[in-house]
């Protein structure tokens, strides 16, 4: 069986996690950092727009087993980080964000 490719970077998707599960994790992180509820909702709406894509992939999310995954975790967090940047999240927090998710997903590093 061949791994499905990320439609954004063309790398195989090794940790398929769907946008819903990603949004949940991002939500928790924002909540943990004491962002205002309104801001959290706005950020999540923007991130959703960025990361949601129609998928022809047959790779199911490893967390919920309910959604197909077309974009790899690296690309999703990269896009999410750019949204956070647009919302004026400072570099210190951005690094924290990327470190946590890097660590969880086993990626070497992000280059924003
Ligand atoms: Zn990718
Ligand atoms: Zn999922």
**Helical stretch tally:** 4
Q: What is the oligomer described by this structure?
A: single chain
**Average pLDDT score:** 83
Instruction: Count the beta strands.
Output: 0
SSE class = mainly alpha
Q: In what range is the share of β-strand residues?
A: under 5%
Mind describing the biggest β-sheet? none
Radius of gyration: 14 Å
Question: Which overall shape is indicated by the principal axes computed on the Cα atoms?
Answer: globular
Attribute tags:
mainly alpha; binds zinc ion; single chain
Summarize the structure.
With 112 residues, this protein is mainly α. It has one domain (19-105). Helix content is 52%, strand content 0%.
Protein model, in words:
By secondary structure, this protein is mostly helical. The protein has one domain. Helices cover 52% and strands 0% of the residues. It contains four helices and no strands. It is globular and about 35 Å long. The mean pLDDT is 83.
